[in-house]
RNA sequence: UGCUCGGUAGCUCAAUGGUAGAGCAGGCGGCUGUUAACCGUCUGGUUGCAGGUUCAAGUCCUGCCCGAGCAGCCA
């Protein structure tokens, strides 16, 4: 007899199998009990009757509560009355634990209650489907980058200073010295790509901003590729290919999960190259036409991003921002030094920015000047300046916000559902 | 941080200023094809906290706490 994952039961028709899992729901017709069992891979209905089970085992099955842990042995039968088209006719039952009254009933619940029970909410079909899609997105991204000759090189989480002077960092005590949790691995990755050519970092990043929105977490995961000898245009096409590869992998491998989430996949199917490109200046014009009160030089907020994304069915690149509202390390546009060679990728359907990328300054003197203009401590950036001293080359990179990408692909209304244990403003339990 | 809305049973929600209610969950009983099963029955309350108005406050007023939505902040 085989120990089988529920998702693989289809290939064990009329065979005897062993399944271990938890009781998702139960209904009873007196002498006939229906157990809906989950094992993390899928759900299956098991049927218990007095005909196939001893009196003692039948009574045990009758006592099972939601989330009781168990193991069943029985024969897989085709039956279109069961969810998924087959069910298990139980011949024997082993119970690990009869569950106490489980807090999350199969009815509706509010956000506060669910997030307080986050450690249990992840068992729901809703959250576990999202986590599976998240896993597929990560796997697809790694497969894509690895196939393109990238090496994963991870960067430190404990850092001596800000990558930039702007964001609010989490400060910690490092043996009596101040240190900070990383808000990006980019600067270190610029060093790494001068060693290995094409690299990416995938890890957690931390922002201590008092942001309380559906698209912000205090702790989130970022995929940050960095490439030597790559300029703005090539940087954008790699982003485009990466996003298309991720979306098509999810469509191919996660159709059950997308169905569980009731995701309308028609938008996802349109995610094919090329993505529309829009300069910052053009975007400002379009926003003005739509009635936004915005002047050249202002940064875009959430409503502006949503308005721009609504003009297109695909994700859209916004390029050539004014240098004044972007980071110090971005390469100025040779035709107009007020602009920088950067691109934000705005997801479709109003999900906002999922990628921010740019070509980096490779000239020593220019970078030094920018560091001073931004009032950053030059000493702290000595190693970063060194990269422009010893065999400097044009290079580019970008950062993909994993949770925002998951939120977009899954069609979620809030980013808190995209990670097993979200870290929110003023909310760190459990 | 600002604006707006909210807080009643374990959960989701009702309740003209006039006796605190229902469904689900949980207990007990019934049912051989249920799909958030159903039927009967039982259990379940400091109405977020503190004060005030009133013969009477879940309901009106003030302050505070907590949550949510939006905005700001935000490579």
Question: Can you give a write-up of this model?
Answer:
This protein is α+β, with helices and mostly antiparallel strands and 430 residues long. The chain has 2 domains: 2-97, Nucleic acid-binding proteins (OB fold (Dihydrolipoamide Acetyltransferase, E2P), Beta Barrel), CATH 2.40.50; 118-418, Bira Bifunctional Protein, Domain 2 (BirA Bifunctional Protein, domain 2, 2-Layer Sandwich). It is built from 13 helices and 19 strands. The chain has helices at residues 55-63, 111-116, 118-121, 125-147, 186-196, 232-253, 255-260, 266-269, 280-289, 302-309, 364-373, 382-386, 402-410; strands at residues 2-3, 16-28, 32-38, 43-49, 69-78, 86-97, 151-152, 158-159, 171-174, 177-181, 198-206, 219-228, 277-279, 316-319, 332-333, 336-340, 342-347, 352-360, 395-401. Helix 4 (125-147) packs across helix 6 (232-253) and helix 4 (125-147) packs across helix 13. The longest helix is centred in the first third of the chain and has 23 residues, at 125-147. It is elongated, with a radius of gyration of 26 Å. The protein binds one RNA strand of 75 nucleotides through residues 25-34, 36, 45, 47, 49-51, 65-66, 79, 81-83, 100-113, 163-164, 166-168, 183-184, 186, 207, 209-214, 216, 299, 301-303, 326-327, 329-330, 342, 344, 353, 356-358, 398-399. Residues 131-430 form the Aminoacyl-transfer RNA synthetases class-II family profile domain. It holds the Pfam family tRNA-synt_2. It comes from Psychracetigena formicireducens. Homodimer.
């Amino acid at each position: 007899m085989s120990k089988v994952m529920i998702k693989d039961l289809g290939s064990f028709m009329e065979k005897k199998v062993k399944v271990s899992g938890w009781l998702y729901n139960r209904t009873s017709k007196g002498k006939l009990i229906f157990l809906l069992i989950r094992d993390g891979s899928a759900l299956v209905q098991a049927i218990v009757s007095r005909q196939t089970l001893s009196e003692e085992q039948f009574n045990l099955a009758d006592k099972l509560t939601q989330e009781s842990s168990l193991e069943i042995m029985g024969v897989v039968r085709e039956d279109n009355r069961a969810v998924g088209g087959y069910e298990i006719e139980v011949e024997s039952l082993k119970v690990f634990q009869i569950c106490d009254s489980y807090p999350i009933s199969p009815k509706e619940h509010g956000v506060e209650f669910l997030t307080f029970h986050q450690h249990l909410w992840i068992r729901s079909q809703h959250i576990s489907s999202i986590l599976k899609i998240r896993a597929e997105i990560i796997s697809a991204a790694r497969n894509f980058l690895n196939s393109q000759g990238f090496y994963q090189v991870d960067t430190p989480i404990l850092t001596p200073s800000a990558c930039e002077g702007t964001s609010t960092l989490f400060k910690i005590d490092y043996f009596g010295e101040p240190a900070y949790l990383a808000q990006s691995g980019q600067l270190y990755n610029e060093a790494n790509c001068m060693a290995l050519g094409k690299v990416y970092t995938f890890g957690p990043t931390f922002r201590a901003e008092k942001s309380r929105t559906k698209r912000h977490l205090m702790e989130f995961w970022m995929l940050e590729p960095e490439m030597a000898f790559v300029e703005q245009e090539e940087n954008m096409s790699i982003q485009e290919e990466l996003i298309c590869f991720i979306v098509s992998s999810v469509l191919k491998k996660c159709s059950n999960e997308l169905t569980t989430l009731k995701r309308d996949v028609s938008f996802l199917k349109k995610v094919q190259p090329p993505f529309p490109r829009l300069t910052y200046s053009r975007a400002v014009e379009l926003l003005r036409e739509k009635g936004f009160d915005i002047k050249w030089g202002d940064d875009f907020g959430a409503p502006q991003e949503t308005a721009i994304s609504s003009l297109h069915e695909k994700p859209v690149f916004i390029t050539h921002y004014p240098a004044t509202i972007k980071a110090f390390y971005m390469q100025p546009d040779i035709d107009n030094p007020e602009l920088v060679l950067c691109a934000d990728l705005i997801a479709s359907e109003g999900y906002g920015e999922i990628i921010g990328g740019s070509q980096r300054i490779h000239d020593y003197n220019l970078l030094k000047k920018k560091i001073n203009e931004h009032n950053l401590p030059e000493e702290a950036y000595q190693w970063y300046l060194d990269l422009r001293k010893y065999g400097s080359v044009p290079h580019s990179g970008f950062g993909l916000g994993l949770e925002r990408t998951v939120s977009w692909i899954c069609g979620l209304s809030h980013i808190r559902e995209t990670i097993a244990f979200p870290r929110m403003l003023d909310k760190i339990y459990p």
